[in-house]
Amino acid sequence: LAQGIETPEVFNLVVRWRSLEDHTPGFEASEDHEGFMSAIQEYFSKEPTVYHLEGGAFAATDHENGDAAG
Predict the structure, then answer these.
(1) SS3 36
(2) Distance (Å, rounded) from C-alpha 21 to C-alpha 50?
(3) H-helix or E-strand containing 11?
(4) Rounded Cα distance, 61 and 24, in Å
(5) Which of 68, 51, 45 has its CA nearest to residue 17?
(6) What is the pLDDT of residue 70?
(7) Residues 20-42: b if buried by 16+ CB within 10 A, e if exposed
(8) Rounded distance, CA 17 to CA 59, Å?
(9) Which pTM was predicted?
(10) Which of 66, 31, 70, 3 is nearest to 17 (CA)?
């Protein structure tokens, strides 16, 4: 969870997925997604904005991809 510097009332939840498909439609269509959203819904002042990023700082590591460290 990352709080905005210029906008401290804004928080970003950063989730690293192995692939875009793991998130959409994978997770979003699952019962786990429904439970997750129900658990955090009270913290939203409005519908959350979802966006996907790529790049070095956001790339999943080998460990996060389920690979064992060598």
Answers:
(1) helix
(2) 14
(3) strand 11-12
(4) 20
(5) 51
(6) 37
(7) eeebeeeeeeeeeeeeeeeeeee
(8) 8
(9) 0.60
(10) 66
The amino acid sitting at 66 is G
User: Helix (H, G, I), strand (E, B), or coil: what is residue 58?
Assistant: coil
Q: Do 64 and 16 form a contact (C-beta atoms < 8 A)? A: yes
Token reading at 8? 């401290």
Question: In whole numbers, what is the pLDDT of the chain averaged over residues?
Answer: 82
Amino acid 35: pLDDT: 94
Contact in structure between 9 and 38 (CB atoms under 8 Å): no
| Token pair for 52 | 């996907």
Chain-centroid distance of CA 30 in Å reads 15
